[in-house]
Design brief:
single chain; alpha+beta; Dodecin subunit-like; Alpha-Beta Plaits; five-stranded mixed sheet; 5 helices; about 30% helix; about 45% strand; disordered N terminus
């Protein structure tokens, strides 16, 4: 079975109802939160326990912040919801933090209370950070979006309220952080209660949009399989700029389906190339590893849907 985590859906919600708390994610860059972390003390190693308690507090700060807007990360495989995980990855999210209080709560437990400034960039269109989360959780695609729910005025529904929902979303490739699809949807749901009606309207709009996005994702993958697509190739073992050009020319000459190769970045012993091919990354990886590439030996050391990592050496 392939990785269980194909999609991660992250949505920020904005409810515009009278008497209901509102949140506008796009207006905030950070949020200050206080969180508590604990860790067990083993072999009297208080320093290690302190570090682990601090890490625990940082994770909880992120979970607390994003949990306000993202109640769960919905992981989908083959159109079936398989797992709901609360997002709790702190790396790259906490801008700064300070320890408010720390110490032993008992002889075997250390506690750290922190005040953390948490980044909200993931809710504001940062595709690189969204990609980082998806890769961390093992997903191939991440879907980020925003939902707005409100009550429409001017309708006579016999005491019921016309609750309206609008949702926008975009699909990001996890391994290369590029947008492959976008979509939007609208739905209405009549209800006497604003919040309940808004929630149901959001569900309807989300169901409509998920079908649209799934079709777009499937079509994109079909197009990439049968038509020309771009695969990112990270090359390790580079000795010079001349060697990179020699390798590019060799691949273009010997490997089937390669249309063009572009330099994306060359630094030290590593080069990043964009390879335009007819096919996909798996096909290119097989060709690179099996073909006799003249004076180059190639070893595949990493492979995702859109990215290949290789080690080259001279024969």
């Amino acid at each position: 079975m392939r990785k269980n985590k194909f999609f991660i859906m992250l949505f920020s919600l904005l409810f515009v109802f009278s008497g209901f708390a509102t949140f506008v994610s796009g207006q905030q860059a950070t949020k200050v939160v206080t969180s508590t972390g604990v860790a067990s003390i083993f072999s009297n190693d208080v320093g290690l326990a302190r570090d682990q308690a601090t890490d625990d507090a940082l994770r909880k700060a992120v979970e607390q912040t994003l949990g306000t807007f993202i109640q769960s990360s919905t992981l989908v495989e083959n159109n079936m919801v398989v797992q709901d995980n609360i997002l709790s990855w702190s790396n790259g999210y906490v801008r700064t933090h300070k320890i408010l209080r720390e110490g032993k709560t008992d002889p075997s437990t250390y506690q750290v209370i922190i005040e953390a400034v948490v980044e909200l960039a993931i809710l504001q269109g940062n595709t690189q950070m969204a990609s980082a989360i998806a890769k961390k959780l093992g997903a191939e695609v991440i879907i980020t979006g925003k939902t707005i729910a409100k009550v429409a005025t001017g309708f006579n529904l016999g005491g019921m309220k016309s609750c309206q929902a609008n949702i926008t979303a975009r699909v990001i490739k996890a391994d290369v952080a590029t947008i492959i699809a976008t979509g939007s949807s609208h739905a209405a749901y009549p209800h006497i209660d604003e919040v309940t009606g808004g929630t149901e309207a959001i569900k309807k709009a989300t169901n409509k949009l998920s079908t649209e996005l799934l079709n777009k994702i499937t079509q994109k993958w079909k197009d990439e399989f049968y038509k020309s697509t771009t695969v990112k190739v990270v090359v390790h073992g580079v000795k010079s700029f001349t060697q990179v050009n020699d390798f590019k020319n060799t691949v273009k000459y010997f490997v089937r389906g390669v249309k063009e190769i572009y330099n994306r970045n060359i630094a030290g012993s590593m080069a990043e190339l964009d390879v335009k091919i007819t096919g996909n990354a798996s096909q290119l990886a097989r060709e690179l590893e099996k073909k006799d590439l003249d004076k180059f030996d190639v070893k595949i050391i990493g492979l995702t849907m859109n990215k290949i990592t290789i080690q080259i050496s001279d024969k």
